[in-house]
Specification:
Strand content of chain B: 25-35%
Distance between the termini of chain B: 41 Å
Oligomer: heterodimer
Radius of gyration of chain B: 24 Å
Largest interface: A-B, 37 and 43 residues
Helix content of chain A: over 70%
Number of strands of chain B: 13
Radius of gyration of chain A: 20 Å
Order of helices and strands of chain B: EEEHEHEHHHEHEHEEHEHEEHEH
CATH superfamily of the largest domain in chain B: P-loop containing nucleotide triphosphate hydrolases
GO molecular function (chain A): ABC-type transporter activity
CATH topology of the largest domain in chain B: Rossmann fold
Protein name (chain A): Transport permease protein
Distance between the termini of chain A: 36 Å
Number of domains of chain B: 2
InterPro entries (chain A): ABC2_TM, ABC2_TM_bact-type, ABC_2_transport, Nod_factor_ABC_transporter
Structural class of chain B: alpha/beta
Largest sheet of chain A: none
Number of helices of chain B: 11
Helix content of chain B: 25-40%
CATH architecture of the largest domain in chain B: 3-Layer(aba) Sandwich
GO cellular component, one term (chain A): ATP-binding cassette (ABC) transporter complex
Pfam families (chain A): ABC2_membrane
Chain lengths: ~260, ~300
């Protein structure tokens, strides 16, 4: 190795914030999409559920086309898979492997790291939504309602589920986060009002389920996309409440290593 | 305000850091001169990592005064972190990221980074740029971490055990990089428990134990005293010890612990060795199995703490 003096002569300085945030978003997005397991959760399972339950009469989804019932639920599931499950698992392992610590001593401020993570979740979510909407339209879906209400609900759902995902990743061990995030994903596929209408469940259970973020998001989206109306105030309030609680607790208890 | 030239890179006075009941750093004083290599030496739990993390602004100390590049890390952490480079002892890379991808990302966080490809090539990472981090060998991971520490062209670099687990060749390459950094005016603080690493690289050594600096100075200053210096050789039994003794400098001692095996203590250096072999030549003695052992930082540490270093 030849010695080249002057090579390392100091020229310190941070990159401009926009460049750092863009770079962080791009890297986080690649990390989120690179895992096979992750694609199973974000792409394959939601698509399969949509295709399977739309074309085969397995569950009574109430009056109207089955795809009109299923698509809003599957969109809610997409938010769950990326904002909660995917983000929690990835962040849990980043914490475990010292990635957060390493970035914590780089010029990237913590808020910019979180912006990068949020950016990655949103990019992934856009890709999922485009794919699922295309599949649903091919299956004969006829969406109604105000698109802005849909976007607003999905963003609120993203905030609620991101907060909970980060809370989990920042407080539990990586393995515990992995197990719990996957378990909750499966439970919410079954009980989250995604493929099975909440009306199918007994009253007490239903009351509890309606207070959870995924059922509230699914119901809210259904109210807009299937009925052409506006989401119920209660569903919006549930999502806002979880957002405040999740993000607030994550900000308070998140540990970087 | 003093100019950047004479300002120490790190000034710590009376640092204290507690984790619950345990005191990790207990009134630590440390000064790192600018444009030098300082080795922070000590056994596990001596407070090396905590001290370095405080300097990086990653951890807040409970008491004491700390200035790094003239800044208070607890207040001006963000400003400070754009001027320093950090190598963690392990990890720090997205498990799914490729080596080149991670280095490129780190480069994108700085205003004037080094050329990533050239840096990777120099550190022998050229062939594994597309390899995912989890498939890199231990040595490749270390070199990646080192590259990540210097890619932003920092003024001050913190290396935590930079050559732990490296093979001899990779270790030489890492040492070479540290020398280049120093030659280019970068201040280097490295923690290590390898004595030869400290002796080889450091202008100054600070020995930590129990959360304090128990000795510091240049390696030569710390090793002065020479109580541990020994020269041994074998020859025919029954040599004239008084005659040999007379040929040597005044502070030397000569003995024959077992027949035919000779032991000389004193200021063991090139001159002493030349004198001994010259005396042997004069007396027709073939000095065999000549070994010298100089007082090392390891001996200093042992004397100061009564313990081995690891």
């Amino acid at each position: 190795m030849a010695t080249t003096t002057g090579h390392h002569s100091p020229a310190p300085g941070a990159a401009p914030y926009p460049r750092m945030i863009l770079a962080q978003t791009a890297l986080e997005t690649r990390m989120l999409l690179r895992h096979g397991e992750q694609l199973l959760l974000t792409v394959i399972i939601p698509t399969l559920l949509l295709v399977l339950f739309s074309t085969v009469d397995l569950i009574d989804t109430g009056p109207g086309e089955r795809v009109d019932f299923l698509t809003p639920g599957v969109l809610a599931l997409a938010v769950l898979s990326t904002a909660f499950t995917g983000q929690a698992i990835a962040t849990g392992y980043e914490r475990r492997y010292g990635v957060l610590k390493r970035l914590g001593v780089s010029p990237l401020p913590r808020w910019a790291l979180l912006l990068g993570k949020t950016g990655a979740v949103l990019v992934t979510l856009v890709l999922q939504t485009v794919l699922l909407v295309a599949v649903a339209l091919a299956l004969g879906w006829s969406p109604r309602g105000n698109p802005l209400a849909v976007v607003g609900l999905m963003l609120l759902g993203t905030a609620a589920l991101s907060g909970l995902g980060l809370l989990m990743a920042g407080t539990l061990r990586a393995e515990a986060t992995l197990a719990a995030a996957n378990l909750l994903f499966v439970l919410l596929v079954l009980f989250g009002g995604v493929v099975v209408p909440l009306e199918e469940y007994p009253g007490a259970l239903r009351t509890v389920l309606e207070l959870l973020p995924v059922p509230a998001l699914a119901e809210g989206l259904r109210e807009v996309l299937r009925e052409g109306g506006w989401p119920a105030l209660r569903d919006v309030a549930v999502l806002a409440g979880w957002s405040a609680a999740g993000l607030g607790l994550a900000a308070r208890f998140f540990r970087w290593e | 305000m003093r100019s950047a030239g004479d300002q120490p890179a790190v000034e710590a006075v009376g640092l204290v850091k507690r984790y619950g009941e345990r005191i990790a750093v207990d009134g630590l004083d440390l000064t790192v001169p600018a444009h030098s290599v300082t080795a922070v030496l000590g056994p596990n739990g001596a407070g090396k990592t905590t001290t370095i993390e405080a300097c990086e602004g990653y951890r807040r100390v409970d008491a004491g005064r700390l200035r790094v590049l003239g800044l208070d890390p607890a207040v001006d952490g963000e400003k400070l972190r754009s001027r320093i480079g950090v190598m963690l002892q392990e990890g720090g890379v997205y498990p799914g990221a490729r080596a080149g991808e991670m280095l490129r990302h780190m480069a994108s966080l700085y205003a004037h980074p080094l050329d990533v490809d050239a840096l990777g090539e120099r550190l022998g990472l050229g062939s594994c740029g597309r390899t995912p981090y989890r498939r890199l060998s231990g040595g490749q991971r270390q070199r990646l971490a080192l590259a990540m520490a210097v890619v932003g062209r920092p003024e001050l670099v913190f290396l935590d055990e930079p050559t732990a687990g490296l093979d001899p060749q990779a270790r030489q390459a890492a040492w070479e990089l540290v020398r280049e950094l120093r030659a280019d005016g970068v201040t280097v603080v490295l923690s290590t428990h390898l004595m030869d690493e400290a002796e080889e690289l450091a202008d100054r050594v600070a020995i930590l134990d129990g959360g304090r600096v128990i000795a510091d100075g240049t390696p030569a200053e710390l090793c002065r005293g020479g109580a541990g210096d020994v020269l041994r050789f074998a020859g025919r039994p029954g040599l004239d010890l008084a005659s040999l003794r007379a040929a040597l400098p005044a502070d030397s001692e000569v003995s024959e612990p077992t027949p035919g095996s000779y032991r000389i203590t004193g200021d063991v250096g090139p001159r002493l060795l030349a004198t001994v072999t010259a005396w042997c030549a004069q007396h027709g003695v073939l000095a065999d199995r000549i070994t010298t052992r100089r007082h090392t930082l390891e001996d200093v540490f042992l004397e100061l703490t009564g313990r081995e270093l690891r």
